[in-house]
Specification:
Layout lengths: L14 E5 L6 E4 L11 E5 L9 E7 L2 E6 L5 E7 L4 E8 L6 E6 L2 E5 L5 E4 L4 E5 L9 E4 L1
Antiparallel strand pairs: 1-4, 1-12, 2-3, 4-5, 6-7, 8-9, 10-11
C-alpha cells in the first residue's frame, strides 16, 4: 500500500491516488454509466488498483496544477449539468483546467477551482461548488 504523501506533494510529473473525505474511499476516473458522465470522478473504492485510480499532475502555470485521469489520460475539469450534479469533476477534457492546492490540515489537501470553489467528495461524484472547506473537501493523497 502506498504511503500518504506529505501536504502539498501534488507536484508536476507525479502520479497520485486521491482518497475522498466523505467515506475515506479512493477516487477514480470512472467510465460512463447510466447515472454518471464519462470520466466522472467517483470516490467509491477500497483499494488502489488499476490505472483508473491514478491521477497525473501537470504544471498549469501561476502556481496551479492540472490533473489527468489515469483511465482516459484526459484532463480533469468541471462539468456543469443538471440532475443534482452541479459542477462535478470529470476527466474527459482535451483542454487543461487549473486548480489550486491548499493545505487542509492533518496531512490532507483541498482542491480549489479557478472560481475559488472547493471540490468535495459527495460519494457518488466529486462536486466543485462549495465555498467552505468541510471534511468532505479534504483529500488524502498517496504517491504511486
Amino acid at each position: 500500500m502506498p504511503t500518504p504523501a506529505p501536504t502539498f506533494a501534488l507536484y508536476p510529473g507525479g502520479v497520485f491516488a486521491l482518497r475522498g473525505g466523505k467515506d475515506k474511499k479512493y477516487c477514480k476516473d470512472a467510465p460512463e454509466k447510466w447515472d454518471r458522465a464519462e470520466g466522472q470522478v467517483v470516490c467509491d473504492s477500497n483499494k488502489i488498483e488499476g490505472k483508473k485510480k491514478r491521477f497525473s499532475v501537470e504544471d498549469a502555470g501561476d502556481g496551479k496544477i492540472a490533473l489527468r485521469g489515469g483511465r482516459s489520460d484526459l484532463y480533469c475539469g468541471l462539468k456543469v449539468s443538471g440532475g443534482g450534479f452541479g459542477n462535478s469533476l470529470v476527466c474527459n477534457k482535451h483542454n487543461m483546467e487549473k486548480f489550486s492546492v491548499e493545505d487542509a490540515g492533518g496531512g490532507k489537501i483541498a482542491l480549489k477551482t479557478e472560481n475559488g470553489d472547493y471540490c468535495k467528495d459527495e460519494g457518488k461524484y466529486v462536486s466543485c461548488h462549495s465555498m467552505t472547506l468541510t471534511e468532505e473537501s479534504k483529500f488524502e493523497i498517496s504517491k504511486l
